[in-house]
Specification:
Layout lengths: L5 H28 L1 E2 L2 E2 L4 H30 L7 H29 L1 H8 L20
Antiparallel strand pairs: 1-2
């Protein structure tokens, strides 16, 4: 049963890497623009180094994801391989952890703005998951 979810693990990895990429981009863009004590935030090592470390990790995991997906396309029988399942499981764990760490760094870099960026959506109140029931107040 362990080796039957390889494709799903790769999909979860892709989604987690995309999420991490978005958070790293927010942190990096904000650090380039924000000025504190007459210096841009990206000039401080405590801000710049974690961002560059996360970018390196993201590139490494993204390359692994592409390689695994290409191997699965070329050899569909690898979907039943325990080795490929182990690789996909490791990538899934690493990529979701990267997303979590990127989220923490995004909140640390942007402060409260990181929280609003994280949970903001373009649809706003039209999103069915956050619809507010509106009652007729005139009755």
């Amino acid at each position: 049963a362990f080796h039957q979810l390889t494709e799903e693990r790769l999909v979860i990895s892709a989604e987690a890497l995309g999420d991490a990429m978005k958070k790293i981009l927010y942190s990096h863009a904000f650090a380039l623009q924000r000025t504190q004590f007459n210096k841009r935030l990206h000039q401080y090592q405590v801000i710049r180094f974690p961002i560059s470390k996360k970018i390196r990790e993201l590139n490494l995991m993204f390359s692994a994801l592409i390689q695994y997906a290409r191997q699965m396309d070329e050899h569909p029988e690898l979907a039943d391989s325990k080795l490929m399942a182990a690789n996909a499981m490791g990538l899934k764990i690493s990529s979701t952890e990267l997303g979590f760490e990127s989220s923490i760094h995004c909140f640390r870099t942007l402060g409260g703005r990181g929280f609003t960026r994280q949970y903001a959506n373009e649809i706003g109140l039209l999103d069915p998951y956050c619809m507010i029931p509106i009652q007729n107040l005139s009755e």
